[in-house]
């Protein structure tokens, strides 16, 4: 346990500046666009200017969801950037140990503890980074709501719910689904994706040149297996042999089977195939 | 411990923020509505669903209101989406109930009109190939499934066996098929009689020969689905549409007449039905149940039903007349005839009423109202934001 915590802490420590930079970019983009959008509308309203004069939407009453909807693209850019960086880092988290200074992986592999702890600690770190960005977005939204209330006078604003504001941006709606069950599905699938990616990387590291082909093929096969119950069994085909609840159970089964096999294979490769 | 401070703080914050959001912040606080019983038996309103949208938020929310409450589409999860797939099949007729009772037999069967059921048998007929009819039979007493394939005589190479009615009469299976015919662009109806036990074709007959006779009049004939397919009749509707304008990009027509015909499986005779309304009304809807053909007309204030008995030839004009004012409503929005019942959807001020009436005599069995499940002070405002424009009968089985 102690070794696991140490490794997780090390991974967080290594990524801390990138994580902080992503958070800063997100905050600057969202705050600046929000403040600029709200202020120009409030200013137009105070001067009694209409949409025809100013050339942008001047609603009768301002709401926080309206503000989020009006700054949609400025919210989306840092979110997409963060998603891209985290996806890329899911690969780099392994390769930096091989290609970094003094091939750090040899030291990690020779630690006096089970090698699978290395796999789990990297996975935990990636998940922690994803959820950190998500939690940070929630904090930002709460702060942005406070900012909105501070800038917009009470007589020209209407109070709304936090959840309604999230529905105004497709990216936020996807990242923060209303139902916790949906949250489990989205992030569960994301987690499976990371696990499969980790195993593909280990396949590549184990078999080198041929490993690239094996790793890519393994990833493709896993994706095909995950989508196969829905696609091959024809969930929307009225004459489909299997009933929707059976297809749902099969989908759950493959979503359990793929990560279990991937983790098992990853552990085996790390313990038996990768040698120092 | 100090070494791990960053990791510990990060983990605790992440967990705390996400839990707080899903416990307190993610609830949408959309208003709740419910279909409540005002009068009659609540079971008669159990299958009623009203769908529309709620416009009190920045984004319009699609909503369904029924006796259980309100169901917003935005609250659906991946599981809901998967489990409600093919709902158009399982909600049609009695398919949902048959799936529950005979799960194995019902696999892959989706054409409501291909089914026949009586006390002894559940039968499904469908096209197996371009010229073959496949019949599967489930004996309800023994749960034994038998099947046979019968080759049908076809007239063209591009045939498709589209089964539209199946009826068992004594030791014969009567199958009505719509298929291509030589010399006409229209799909015509064919009657095939099979030996019920062996599937051997006893006789076949083309029963409709409708074709375009006037240059500016289009034909579009169809049959009426009969939920009680044990009476030996099938009814055809032949509307005539006068073409008003026809060009490459546009087409408009106006219905100028509609003729009804009855075909009897035992006698093999096709006879025209008298029009009980005499004067043609393009707003008439036709419904076939058992031996009765029902003619439904409605405007915003009144709904009337006339009927014709196929067995006796007895005609009853306007045997049911329902006024919106009878229920204190302002207007009738729509009505559905299904399974010996008439379901009427009405608007009363800012709220909606639904009533279930007995199809045989128009007696009210159930009256329900959409109510707001929240503080009385907000009721008027929230009801104004609700638009329910569609009435559905959902035969969902639990």
- Number of DSSP strand runs of chain A: 0
The 3D shape of chain A can be described as globular
Q: Roughly what fraction of the amino acids of chain A lie in strands? A: under 5%
Number of strands of chain B: 26
User: Main sheet of chain A, how many strands, which sense, barrel?
Assistant: none
- The gross shape of chain B turns out to be globular
| CATH class identity of the domain at 111-208 in chain B | Mainly Beta
How much helix, percentage-wise, in residues of chain A?
Answer: over 70%
Structural class of chain B: mainly beta
Q: Low-confidence parts of chain B lasting 5 or more residues at pLDDT below 50?
A: none
In CATH, the topology of the domain at 111-208 in chain B is named: Thrombin, subunit H
Q: Helix count of chain B?
A: 5
The rounded distance between the terminal residues' Cα atoms of chain A is: 24 Å
Major pleated sheet of chain B: 5 strands, antiparallel
The quaternary organization reads as: heterodimer
Biggest sheet: strand arrangement of chain B:
1-25-24-23-22
- How many domain units of chain A? 2
- Order of secondary-structure elements of chain A: HHHHHHHHHH
Question: Can you walk me through this structure?
Answer:
The complex is a heterodimer of chains A (276) and B (398). Chain A is mainly alpha-helical and 276 residues long. Chain A has two domains: 1-176, no CATH class; 177-276, no CATH class. Helix content of chain A is 80%, strand content 0%. Chain A has ten helices and no strands. Chain A has helices at 2-46, 51-54, 64-70, 72-99, 104-109, 116-151, 162-167, 170-175, 180-232, 244-273. In chain A, helix 1 runs antiparallel to helix 4, helix 6 crosses helix 9 (180-232) and helix 9 crosses helix 10 (244-273). The longest helix of chain A is centred in the C-terminal third of the chain and has 53 residues, at 180-232. Chain B has a domain at 111-208: Thrombin, subunit H, CATH 2.40.10.480. In chain B, strand 16 and strand 17 form a beta hairpin. In chain B, the strands form six sheets. In chain B, strands 1-25-24-23-22 form a five-stranded antiparallel β-sheet. In chain B, strands 13, 14, 15, 16 and 17 form a five-stranded antiparallel β-sheet that branches. In chain B, strands 4-3-2-26 form a four-stranded antiparallel β-sheet. Helices cover 12% and strands 47% of the residues of chain B. Chain B has helices at 5-25, 78-83, 87-90, 95-101, 376-384, and strands at residues 33-40, 48-54, 61-66, 69-72, 115-117, 121-127, 132-139, 144-151, 162-169, 172-179, 188-195, 201-206, 217-219, 222-223, 233-246, 251-264, 270-272, 285-289, 292-298, 302-309, 315-323, 331-338, 341-348, 351-358, 364-372, 386-393.
